[in-house]
C-alpha cells in the first residue's frame, strides 16, 4: 500500500477544493454553436443483428430450454453444406444466441470499422472467451449495412486488493472493438443542399435569435433565419465550400439566454438540483407533524441625515420549520429555496416529505420555478 505524507495529503485536499470551487463558480461565458446545436441530417443510425457466439467453456445456452439456438445452429450448418440427420438431439453447451448492436455514424463509408456490443438473449451463464460468428447488422429499413465477427472481451471480473475476494459482475454482455465492417454507406445530401438547418438541443426563442444574429454578423445579413425556437435555416455563401463553411459556423460563440428557474428532484435518493436561485412567495405548508411557514416582509433602510443617500426597501423572509414541539428553525434570509431545503435536511426530512412539500408549494403558486421529478 502506498503511503502519503501529511503535506502531500494537504496538497491533494487543497487541489480538490480548488477544483470544486472552480466547477461551482458561476462563470458566464459564450458557447460554441456546435455545443448547443446539431446539423439536421448529421446523425448516427442504430444497427441490430442476431448471431451465435461459439467457443464458450460450458457456459452457453441450455439447448433444451432455448430452441431458437438449436434452430440457428441447424440453419447455419445447412448453409455450410452440412445436413444433420432428422431427429438429431443437439446438446450443446458452448454456443449462445446473442443480439449484436452498434451505431452507424454519419458519413460512414464501406470498409470503415465499428465497435459492437454483444448481448446474450438465452440462458447462457457467461460469454467470456467466446467468438462471434459472422453476423449481418441491419438498419430500421431492413437493409444490411455492416458485418460483424470477432472475439469478445467481457469485463467485470476482478479480485479485491487483498486477493481474498473475487468480484464477478455482468458476464452476459461483451464488446468487440472494430468488430464490424461497414458494407453500405447511407445516402447523405447535406453537402449538396442549398439550405443547412441547425437544430438547437434546447428549444429557446432567445437563444435562437442570438444564434441568428451571431451568424449574420460573421457571414453577412440574411445568411441565417430562425424558423422556430429550435430550427434555424442557414444559407451558405457560394464563395465558400460547404465543409469550410460548416467548420467556421460551428466555432461561432453565442451568448446563451438566461434559462428559466428549474428544480430537479430525485424522489428515490432525495437529491435536489437547482439551476439558479429559485424564489419563494409567502406560504404555509402542513405535512403530517411537519409545518413550513414562509413570511416575507419589507425592511426599509433609512440613510442618515444630510448623507444624500436614498431610502431602500428590501424583502426579507422568515422561514419557520417545525417538526417537533419546541423545535423551530428560523432563517432570516431572502426567500430562497436552498435555505428551505437545507433546513428540512437539518431536521431529517425524508425525500418523500421533501417532494410533498415542494409539490404543495408549486400547486399553491408559491414556488416560482419549474418542478421536475425523476
TrEMBL record:
A Pfam family matched in the record: FlgI
Signal peptide: 1-30
The keyword Signal is annotated on this UniProt entry: yes
GO terms (BP aspect): bacterial-type flagellum-dependent cell motility
Record keywords: Bacterial flagellum, Cell projection, Cilium, Flagellum, Signal
Cell compartments where the protein resides: Bacterial flagellum basal body
Annotated GO CC locations: bacterial-type flagellum basal body, distal rod, P ring; outer membrane-bounded periplasmic space
GO molecular function per UniProt: structural molecule activity
Keyword Membrane listed: no
Family indicated by similarity: Belongs to the FlgI family.
Complex formation: The basal body constitutes a major portion of the flagellar organelle and consists of four rings (L,P,S, and M) mounted on a central rod.
Biological function: Assembles around the rod to form the L-ring and probably protects the motor/basal body from shearing forces during rotation.
Protein name: Flagellar P-ring protein
Species per Swiss-Prot/TrEMBL record: Methylophilus medardicus
Taxonomic lineage: Bacteria, Pseudomonadati, Pseudomonadota, Betaproteobacteria, Nitrosomonadales
UniProt gene name: flgI
Amino acid at each position: 500500500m502506498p503511503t502519503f505524507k501529511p503535506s502531500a495529503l494537504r496538497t491533494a485536499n487543497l487541489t480538490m477544493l480548488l477544483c470544486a470551487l472552480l466547477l461551482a463558480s458561476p462563470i458566464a461565458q459564450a458557447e460554441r454553436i456546435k455545443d448547443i446545436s446539431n446539423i439536421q441530417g448529421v446523425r448516427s443510425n442504430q444497427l441490430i443483428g442476431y448471431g451465435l457466439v461459439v467457443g464458450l467453456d460450458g457456459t452457453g445456452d441450455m439447448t433444451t430450454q432455448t430452441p431458437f439456438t438449436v434452430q440457428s445452429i441447424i440453419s447455419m450448418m445447412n448453409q455450410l453444406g452440412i445436413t444433420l440427420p432428422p431427429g438429431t438431439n443437439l446438446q450443446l453447451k458452448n454456443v449462445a444466441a446473442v443480439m449484436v448492436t452498434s451505431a452507424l455514424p454519419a458519413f460512414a463509408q464501406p470498409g470503415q470499422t465499428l465497435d459492437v456490443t454483444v448481448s446474450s438473449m438465452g440462458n447462457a451463464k457467461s460469454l467470456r472467451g467466446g467468438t462471434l460468428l459472422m453476423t449481418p447488422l441491419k438498419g430500421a429499413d431492413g437493409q444490411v449495412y455492416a458485418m460483424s465477427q470477432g472475439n469478445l472481451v467481457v469485463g467485470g471480473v476482478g479480485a479485491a486488493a487483498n486477493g481474498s475476494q473475487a468480484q464477478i459482475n455482468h458476464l452476459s454482455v461483451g464488446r468487440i472493438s472494430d468488430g464490424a465492417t461497414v458494407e453500405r454507406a447511407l445516402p447523405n445530401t447535406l453537402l449538396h443542399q442549398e439550405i443547412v438547418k441547425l437544430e438547437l438541443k434546447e428549444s429557446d426563442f432567445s437563444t435562437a435569435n442570438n444564434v441568428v444574429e451571431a451568424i449574420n454578423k460573421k457571414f453577412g445579413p440574411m445568411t441565417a433565419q430562425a424558423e422556430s425556437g429550435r430550427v434555424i435555416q442557414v444559407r451558405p455563401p457560394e464563395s465558400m465550400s460547404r465543409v469550410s463553411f460548416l467548420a467556421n459556423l460551428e466555432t461561432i460563440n453565442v451568448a446563451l439566454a438566461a434559462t428559466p428557474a428549474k428544480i430537479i428532484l430525485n424522489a428515490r435518493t432525495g437529491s435536489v438540483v437547482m439551476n439558479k436561485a429559485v424564489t419563494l412567495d409567502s406560504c404555509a405548508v402542513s405535512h403530517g407533524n411537519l409545518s413550513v411557514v414562509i413570511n416575507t416582509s419589507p425592511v426599509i433602510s433609512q440613510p442618515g441625515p444630510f448623507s444624500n443617500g436614498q431610502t431602500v426597501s428590501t424583502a426579507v423572509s422568515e422561514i419557520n420549520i417545525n417538526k417537533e414541539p419546541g423545535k423551530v428553525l428560523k432563517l432570516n434570509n431572502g426567500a430562497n429555496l436552498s435555505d428551505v431545503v437545507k433546513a428540512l435536511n437539518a431536521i431529517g426530512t425524508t425525500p418523500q416529505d421533501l417532494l410533498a412539500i415542494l409539490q404543495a408549494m408549486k400547486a399553491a403558486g408559491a414556488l416560482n420555478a419549474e418542478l421536475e421529478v425523476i
